[in-house]
Amino acid sequence: MRMSEPVCEFIDEKRRLDDRREFGWRTVFFGFLRSRRHVIRRDSETDVVFLDWHHPWLFFLAVGTMLLSCVDAFLTLQLIDRGMIEANPFMAGVMGFSTQSFAATKMSLTGFGILTLVFLAKARFLDRIRIGIFLTALFAGYACLVCYEIVNLLKLL
Q1: What pTM, to 2 d.p., does this model score?
Q2: Hey, how many other C-beta atoms are within 10 angstroms of the C-beta on 30?
Q3: Is the dihedral of CA 111, 148, 157, 82 positive or negative?
Q4: Are 132 and 122 in contact (CB under 8 A)?
Q5: pLDDT tens digits, 67-94
């Protein structure tokens, strides 16, 4: 069985391209289940690398930051019950609706930020600083914030 001429030309054209794959949501979900790509395969991928596998340190930072965000939300609510105020004007406005909306907004914004930073961890900001460093800074910032809140909560008790 012979292929028609237009189909053959289309296939030949696709084979000449450097990268024939298409990126979509199926790719993202499939990558979570069966990650195979641990190293760079092409010279053209040296600038920004999107791998299926990330270093375990990124997993620690992502989970740790999310847990610290949960602790921060809990301690913030405890401090507000004892007379303190929310310093973040956006979150103070969200807290005006309900504590559930405050917690949901805080977790969703933090989670989205973490996912973005992990996805771009190998990329470079201004061609100098790896984006993964920002995840480390976010973790350190949340750790300092939680320590600050614990000290203030102990003062109020």
Answers
A1: 0.64
A2: 12
A3: negative
A4: yes
A5: 999 999 999 999 998 888 888 889 888 8
